[in-house]
Structure formats: C-alpha cells, structure tokens
Amino acid sequence: MKYRFTRLLPSFMRIPLPPLYIPVLKRMRRWIYESLYESQDEALVAMKSHAFLFFPRNYGHAKGIFLKLVEMGALKRAKGQLKKIEKNFKGLLGEVELAYLYEHLSVHYRGVRSLCAIEDLYRDRLKREPECMWARRELAGVHFRLGDVPGAIAVVTEQRLLRDHLAGRLGYDTERTRYFGSFYTLAIGHIALLGFYAQQQELQGPEGRRNRLAIDPKRVANACLLSYVEPFFDLVTEEETELQEVIAALEDPHLLLHGGGNRWDFFYDGLPQIGREWERRGNGPFLTLREEHTKDGEKRLREMGLPEGAWFVVLHVRETRLGEVRNAKVADYLPAIREITRRGGWVIRMGDRTMTPLPPMEQVLDYAHDTRKSDSLDIFLLGACRFFLGTNSGPSIAAKLFGKRIVFTNFAPLFCNAFGTPDTWIPILFRDTKDQRLLTLREMAHSPLVYAEYPAAIPGYSVEVVPNTPEEIFDAVVEMFGVLESEQETFSVGLSERIRFDALCRELGINLHAPPSSRFLARHAKWLD
What we know:
Helix content is 48%, strand content 10%. By secondary structure, the protein is α/β, with parallel strands linked by helices. It has a domain of 187 residues: 3-Layer(aba) Sandwich (Rossmann fold). Strands 8-7-6-9-10-11 form a six-stranded parallel β-sheet, with helices on both faces. Strands 1-2-3 form a three-stranded parallel β-sheet. Strands 13-12-14 form a three-stranded antiparallel β-sheet, with no helix packed on it. Helix 1 packs across helix 2 and helix 3 runs antiparallel to helix 4. It is globular and about 65 Å long.
C-alpha cells in the first residue's frame, strides 16, 4: 500500500512504509517548511500549493489554494498557481469563471510593486488570446491606476473596435444595446454606477441605447441596491445561454462613456454631465427609499439605540490596499465626529470588520463591526443620512444616487471627481520628497498624479501623499453644515481663493466640476500659485 505523502517522492522511492513512520515523516516535512516561512499558516499553504503543482486533485482544491495565496499576498506563487489551473483545467473553465480568477488576483494585489507583475500577467494572456476582452479591461485598469490615462484610453479604444467586430460576427447590435456583466455587481460602487447608466438612459429617452444586464447571484455585492436599479434594465435570462457566455466581451469599455452617435467621452468627463443635466431638468433624486424599506430601517436603528426622529451622518473611510491614495486614517476624523454629535446628530460608521475600530463615543455607532449588518440596512443608511462624510469610495456613489450631499475628504485621484456643486470636497496634496515642498495645482494638473491611485509606482516621480489634517476635515464638515443651514459667514471664507481657483482652472484648461472647500483653499493659498 502507498501512502499519500509518498506521492511527493520520485517514483523509485515510492515504496510502502510501515504506519509507524508516517507521523514522523509528516512532522519532519512540516518542520522543514516552517523553517523556510515566517508563519505556520504560510508554511501550510506552501506545502499544499507545492503538492498541487505536481499532483493536482480537482478544480475545487486548486481554486482554494489559489484564493488562499491571493489572500496572503503571495502574488508570485498565486500567478504560478493561476497558470497551472488554466493549463490543467482548461476544458472545465468557462470564460466567466476564468475572468473571475484573474479579477480576484487584480483586486487583491498588495502595494505598488505588484502592478508591473499584474500588467505582465494580462499582456501574456492577450498574446495567447488577442480577443480576450476582460484581459484588455483589466490591463487598461492597471494603466489607469498608474495615472497613464493615454495608455489606458489606447487599450480600451482597441477593445471597443474589437468588441464591435465580435458583436457583428455574432449578430449582436452594440450601437442600440449596452450590455453589462458580473463586473458591475462585484462591488457596491459598481452597482451604483449602473444607476448612473440608467439615469443616462432616462435622459436620452427612446433615442438612447437599451440597457441589458446579466446577473450572477453568486457575485452580487449588495442585493438590496441591485433591486433598486434592476427595474431600469432588461435582464439577460438563463435561457439566453449564448449571450450569457459572451456578455463580458460585449460590454462597453469601462473607461469610456458613450455620449451618443459616434462620440465617446472619457468616463470621468462624461459622468458629471449626466448629473448636471439631470439637475438642470429639475429632477429630484434618481432613487428614493421604498416605504417598507424606510420603516424597517427606522425600526432597526431604534433597536441599535438611536432615538426616534434622530438625524445621522454616515462615515466611510477606506483602509484597503496598501499604497493606494484613496486610503485614510479614521482617527483623523474624530474632531469632525465630535462636531456632528455636538450639533445633536449621530455618526454611523460603515465598512467591514477589517477596519480599525472607533473608540467608544457618545452618539456614535461603529456599524462596521456590528453583527447586525445587512445589505438592506447598508442602503437605508446611505439613503436616509443627512449627509455622507468620507473618502472616494463605492458607498459615496450610492449615496449620491439617493440625492445625498457628500463631504469628500482626502479626495483622490484629483481628476476623478464625478459629481457636482452640492458636494464639499478637499483633495489630498503631494510633497516632493527631494526638496520637501508641496506641489502646486499647476504642477499637478498635467502630470499622472491627478489620475494615479498608486503615485509611488509612477516612474520619474518622487512624491509622498500628504493626507488631510483633522483640522481640515473638521472645517469641511463645518462648511457643509453652513451649506445645509445657509450660514452666510461660511460663504465669505476663502472667497478670493475660490475666484483664483476658477481662474487657474480656466487657464490650465482643466475642469474639476466643483471647487474644493473654501476653508481648505484659504489654508492652502500657495496651492494656487
């Protein structure tokens, strides 16, 4: 009889061993791996993954090892695992499942060093399969995260031309119909973007493109929000098997927004135009909380300690992905939180359990760490809050669909401001590490820094992020209360700097859609030099 561990040995050494030796050899093997790796978990995963490289059992086992390696941040080994999966299980994997594995690797990379490796992964995939649309989409995303917008646009433009050719070959009309796959349901921000596409369709009327959505129930980040935007889409049914298989290839490139006819706009230039046109026509919020949803949400908040009729502000501060500029420290928001509670409001902090817990505070709920979290309560909070305070993230987009005002703090990337005048925002700044001075808006305007999510990875730039101070965040919240309560003194602060800001934007030929906080401009007048 041969024992499982002997499968790791060369064939001439695979001989039956007495049962007495089995536990001894297993302990020896584990001791060797633990001496090579920093933690026991890492050693265990290494043992399993190395065994799989030579003796794959089944796809479920292979996928489990891959997901664990990604979670641990072992990018190099995860890439090797992914290539082995593709080679050994090619016949079992559909394009949708394969795209999911690649996307999972992309969204979990750790820090800036991984970006080049991720780019190589997609380029290798495109060499083997030039018509792989989701690989082009992810490659464009890598360019964009590095601030290389021309490079990203070049990739997605080529993707659009290939998509149109493929659609014509298969008999689908992408000029009159816009297709959306599971990419648009993987995160709450992606689902919220569906709302803006639906808003565009409502503005265009019968002349606009028809929206079709394919939903994979296993890949829906928030089913409640999806239920709000779903009625605006024609759903791809399970019976339409051929369309289900090619839906990812038929999607519009994600960094381009169809403006009608032959016009395609850069996404962050086209999206604000939708909101402004919607407001110009005198429309209210695009989404409104359903009555039964509101009653259930209010009931659950009372159970969590909020008095009946209490108003609240939602706080969401990103803490994911090392090196990304959209991250911030929640501790910097404590003075602003105290100001909100001093004025009689409550603060409900959204997020997940991986985030830094808030210290115990009066009239503050750290909902991110609450066991009573649910999809429906998430959306109720975003749709019923007085305003949203936080960083550039998916929940902020959802709050905007419900017509809520936003206080964007530590806002980045600078040119990815997709919203309008009802919002208050303060950007991050950059410091040149060579001479230790802050870069001006003029220096930033035509550099990759205004789009990059990982500025430390941009060749030729030696900069560090300067996050907003607690005082700046506090001032932004005070300014929002001034807007809500029409406090006249708020509008006089930083007025001359605001005029300078508008003039500089016109001179530089840039459009930030709305000026930053007046108090921020007053503090950083040199930013406008």
